[in-house]
Design goal:
Keywords: Metal-binding, NAD, Transferase, Zinc. Belongs to the sirtuin family. Class I subfamily. It comes from Arthrobotrys flagrans. Pfam families: SIR2. GO terms for molecular function: histone deacetylase activity, NAD-dependent; metal ion binding; NAD+ binding. With about 280 residues, the protein is of the alpha/beta class. About 30% of the residues lie in helices and about 15% in strands. The chain contains nine helices and eleven strands. The chain has helices spanning about 10-20, 55, 60-65, 65-80, 85-100, 110-115, 200-210, 235-240, 270-280, and strands at about 25-30, 45-50, 50, 100-105, 125, 130-135, 145, 190, 220, 245-250, 265-270. The strands form three sheets. The chain has a six-stranded parallel beta sheet, sandwiched between helices. A three-stranded antiparallel beta sheet has the order 7-6-8, covered by helices on one side. Strands 2-3 form a two-stranded antiparallel ribbon. Strand 6 and strand 7 (about 145) form a beta hairpin. Helix 5 runs parallel beside helix 9. The longest helix has 17 residues, at about 65-80. The chain is globular, with a radius of gyration of 19 Å. The two termini are about 30 Å apart. The relative contact order is 0.21. Mean pLDDT is about 90; it is low at about 1-5. Bound molecules: ligand BV8 and zinc ion.
């Protein structure tokens, strides 16, 4: 089956459908923030120094080498806090202000969508946030919102990581990694959902409540490989509720299975920061 069933790049038929659409779900991935200068997980940007980003986003990696994983997340915190929302973030925020039946499910943890003015009640950050840190002690539930400290401890200061990306980052003693100010025992961890961790149930239930409210008119699949579950599953769910699917991506594989769905009604190839403001205006 050809990947595209309908006119793949015709913005006019898309815009005709958009104006008639009320219930819209956008599924966003790392490509949404690429134009803000933030690295993606796969492709050329998929590395952090000499490490595969995906292999660092696991509880096992954190147990094995908390120093390396904290340096990975500290670098991403610094990059995210220094980055600015791009035109794609702003276009989605504007659509959500205009249309209260539009929701964004974002896999990104960089906080750029809230900073773009996306109403929080229409934004579901299902993989958590870099600006949240939480205690790892099972006896303590301390969680902190911290979107300002470029370094949570002196050892994580940007200056301490070698500029040469091929150089192995230093091993930071565990005592010099962030620890819980409340219980004083647990090491702190990034408040993100790692692989093999469950997504926040409250968010999933709220998204399901929105989905159950009736047919869905449009699903926007923006800057994501659509390979990470269960988030990727929303594409097929929307299609099953009658939605047409528009893919906005820099690369288009011959036969991608975005969330198990291998047909899209529109396919817009390019930088979402260029495309979204145009097709959503
Ligand atoms: C779970 C937070 C249950 C951390 C992340 C079903 C089938 C197969 C596997 C599974 C399944 N169910 C569960 C799994 C396992 C796993 C999974 O999906 N594995 C995949 C890889 C095979 N899922 C999980 O583990 C999830 N948990 O299911 O728990 C459970 C638990 C315990 C016991 C029993 C059951 C948790 C998944 C969440 C992981 N956390 N992020 C962090 O950020 O550090 S995932 C992380 O990687 C991102 O959040 C994102 O979701 C993912 C990367 O994907 P993308 O966003 O698509 O980014 P990527 O770089 O890959 O692609 C960028 C895209 O943008 C590309 O397409 C590129 O072309 C495009 N692009 C680039 N520039 C631009 C652009 N497009 C437009 N414009 C541009 N300028
Ligand atoms: Zn604690």
């Amino acid at each position: 089956m050809p990947y595209i069933e309908h006119g793949p790049t015709d913005p006019h038929t898309f815009k005709t459908h958009l104006v008639k659409s009320k219930r819209i779900l956008a599924l966003c991935g790392a490509g949404l923030s690429a134009s803000s200068g933030l690295a993606t997980f796969r492709g050329a940007g998929g590395l952090w120094r000499t490490h595969d980003a995906m292999s660092l986003a696991t509880p096992q990696a954190f147990v094995k080498d908390p120093s390396l994983v904290w340096q990975f997340y500290s670098a991403r915190r610094q990059a995210a806090f220094s980055a600015k929302p791009n035109a794609a973030h702003l276009a989605l925020a504007a659509l959500s202000v205009k249309n209260k039946d539009f929701i964004t499910v974002t896999q990104n943890v960089d906080g750029l969508s809230p900073r773009a003015g996306h109403p929080p009640e229409q934004l579901y950050p299902v993989h958590g946030s870099l600006s949240t840190i939480k205690c790892t002690s099972i006896f303590c539930s301390y969680t902190e919102h911290n979107n300002f400290d470029m370094a949570l401890t002196p050892a994580l200061a940007p200056s301490r990581t070698p500029a040469d990306v091929d150089a192995q980052p230093p091993t930071i003693p565990v005592l010099d990694l962030p620890h819980c100010p409340k219980c004083g025992i647990g090491m702190m961890r990034p408040g993100v959902v790692w692989f093999n961790e469950t997504l926040p149930n409250d968010l999933l239930e709220s998204i399901d409540d929105w989905i159950d409210q009736g047919p869905i008119d449009l699903c926007l699949v923006i800057g994501t490989t659509g390979q990470v579950w269960p988030a990727a599953g929303y594409i097929g769910i929307c299609k099953g509720k009658g939605a047409k699917v528009a893919v906005i991506n820099m690369e288009i594989d011959d036969d991608p299975h975005l969330g198990g769905v291998n047909t899209a009604d529109w396919l817009f190839k390019g930088d979402c920061a260029q495309i979204l403001p145009d097709i959503l205006e």
